[in-house]
């Protein structure tokens, strides 16, 4: 929870009121208006009463990492001039279907308050929130200067709601729709933009499945001369993409449609020419059904790319190797494991500036899969990419020695997310637990902020984490640990921990209650399929009344708490909890 979102009276009492600011109010407000970092502004608000008030009046952007950590009314009283809001709702494990439907996080209560207090609201960025078509219509009609809407992993709405945004938001500059659980009824929403509408700078509908009106899209792209981000869905073919690129050569980020189409030699040359004229392109994604036949049309645009997202392109090592030979300036790369270790060797050879790598499974549920990546590919990347700082790596086998080599090659990791897909998988060469692998990570990578562990792990891993991971902020654990001692080590040792996510581990009440001094400084704790009981949760709620302790019960008769969600809130228990959520 942000320190600056404490109740106003409570926050002021915490300040040293005897300390007056040496700056005149107008000077202080001018300086603070230039500070963009949320963390820096939060810190500034706690210096003294003058700084608190100056920060309050100059803040225009707000980030809330948990929509139940504060109420809309408290926000409205604290900050009178907000123009941009970023709001997150459900716990992250909702991405894995661990949070039931109708859990909550509805945006409407926030919009009701914002419409009264912030009629000048310009931007709304939502993640894992429930958004109805009625809410989108309300949004479109209530904020006449509204400019930017981003919906990521949200649910509850359909393309009818998007129609309202297109129809009524006359000054819209950004419409970003990503990975939502929405009803994709039809693509006619693109025709709802007024004929004189020309302000769009960002348009992303890559995750929608329905056919869209290409004529409406082409007209829209032609009118919007400031369009810099365009990500279309897989129903746009190569010929159509070429027509869009001719009308928008200024694009900086492009998400293509399908790369599988029969082209004449003339059409091929036109597509190739269109890409070569995109001189400012630095991000490329999409490439559905890409094949070696048409990937070469990209080569002319590759030299300026810093981010290449191939997570929808089931290409092999050969195609990737040829493509990366033209991408020497890549900083970020996302691929599927169809590239295999040979493809990752090409990454190590061709991308010396790489800072982020994500390798996703093409089919995570196929245990007999013939392709995939191993520790060999990971080691090859680390040998050629010493600047690597962020990795998300799905694989089916790993060794302690390989991980030790990887972090020795790349000691500057801030995010290390290793996902060995078979739960409880040991080092496949020695049959030993993977404790020393993650011990090497936390000992070597002193800047580590986020860690996801997997494989066969004992409490030794968590002892290493508590002892060495002093900058760790987020820890995700699944199918790991031996006893309560493991979780206790983490809670005792990781002083900067903000998010702890645990599933299918043997941690029980003693582990849960060992964090009494910790939870108020954290954003949240999630525990599911562990050994925590209802009595343990009740004791935590009794000892820490400023925490919301929520239990999602799968069976009423079971004394075990199936899913536990703990977070601090200045608003108290939420009022919209469904019957299956028990707030203790």
Automatic annotation (TrEMBL):
This is Protein TRANSPORT INHIBITOR RESPONSE 1. The gene is LOC107821218. The lineage of its organism: Eukaryota, Viridiplantae, Streptophyta, Embryophyta, Tracheophyta.
């Amino acid at each position: 929870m942000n320190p600056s979102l404490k109740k106003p009276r409570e926050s002021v009492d915490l300040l040293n009121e005897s300390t007056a600011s040496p700056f005149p109010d107008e000077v202080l407000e001018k300086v603070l208006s230039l500070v963009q970092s949320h963390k820096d502004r939060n810190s500034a608000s706690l210096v003294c009463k003058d700084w608190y008030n100056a920060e309050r009046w100059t803040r225009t952007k707000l980030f809330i990492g948990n929509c139940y950590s504060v109420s809309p009314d408290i926000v409205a009283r604290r900050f009178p001039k907000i123009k941009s809001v970023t709001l997150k709702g459900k716990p992250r494990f909702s991405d894995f279907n661990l949070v039931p439907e109708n859990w909550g996080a509805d945006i409407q209560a926030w919009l009701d308050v914002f419409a009264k207090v912030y009629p000048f609201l310009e931007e709304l960025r939502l993640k894992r929130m429930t958004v109805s078509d009625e809410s989108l219509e309300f949004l479109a009609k209530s904020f006449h200067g509204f400019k930017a809407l981003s919906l990521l992993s949200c649910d509850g709405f359909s393309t009818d709601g998007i129609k309202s945004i297109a129809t009524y938001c006359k000054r819209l500059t950004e419409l970003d729709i990503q990975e939502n659980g929405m009803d994709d009824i039809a693509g006619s929403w693109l025709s709802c933009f007024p004929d004189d509408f020309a302000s769009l700078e960002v348009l992303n509908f890559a995750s929608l499945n329905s056919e869209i009106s290409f004529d409406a899209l082409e007209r829209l792209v032609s009118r919007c001369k400031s369009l810099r981000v365009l990500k279309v869905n897989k129903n746009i073919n190569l010929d159509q993409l070429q027509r869009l690129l001719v009308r928008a050569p200024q694009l900086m980020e492009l998400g293509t449609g399908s790369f599988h189409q029969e082209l004449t030699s003339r059409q091929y040359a036109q597509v190739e020419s269109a890409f070569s004229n995109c001189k400012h392109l630095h991000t490329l994604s999409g490439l559905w059904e890409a094949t070696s036949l048409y990937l070469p049309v990209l080569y002319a645009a590759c030299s300026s790319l810093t981010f290449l997202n191939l997570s929808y392109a089931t290409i092999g090592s050969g195609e990737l190797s040829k493509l990366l030979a033209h991408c020497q300036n890549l900083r970020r790369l996302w691929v599927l494991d169809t590239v295999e270790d040979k493809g990752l060797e090409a990454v190590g050879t061709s991308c010396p500036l790489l800072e982020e790598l994500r390798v996703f499974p093409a089919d995570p549920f196929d245990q007999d899969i013939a392709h995939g990546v191993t520790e060999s590919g990971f080691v090859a990347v680390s040998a050629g990419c010493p600047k690597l700082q962020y990795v998300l790596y799905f694989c089916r086998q790993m060794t302690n020695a390989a991980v030790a080599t990887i972090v020795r090659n790349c000691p500057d990791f801030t995010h290390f997310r290793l996902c060995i897909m078979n739960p409880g998988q040991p080092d496949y060469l020695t049959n030993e637990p993977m404790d020393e692998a993650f011990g090497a990570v936390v000992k070597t990578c002193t800047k580590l902020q986020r860690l996801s562990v997997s494989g066969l792990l004992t409490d030794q891993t968590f002892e290493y984490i508590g002892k060495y991971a002093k900058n760790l902020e987020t820890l995700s654990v699944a199918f790991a640990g031996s006893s309560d001692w493991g979780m206790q080590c983490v809670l005792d040792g990781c002083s900067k921990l903000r998010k702890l996510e645990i599933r299918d581990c043997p941690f029980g009440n003693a582990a849960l209650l060992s964090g009494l001094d910790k939870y108020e400084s954290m954003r949240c704790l999630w525990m599911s399929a562990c050994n925590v009981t209802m009595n343990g949760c009740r004791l935590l709620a009794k000892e820490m009344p400023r925490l919301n302790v929520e239990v999602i019960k799968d069976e009423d008769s079971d004394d075990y708490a199936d899913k536990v969600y703990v977070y601090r809130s200045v608003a108290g228990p939420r009022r919209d909890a469904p019957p299956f959520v028990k707030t203790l």
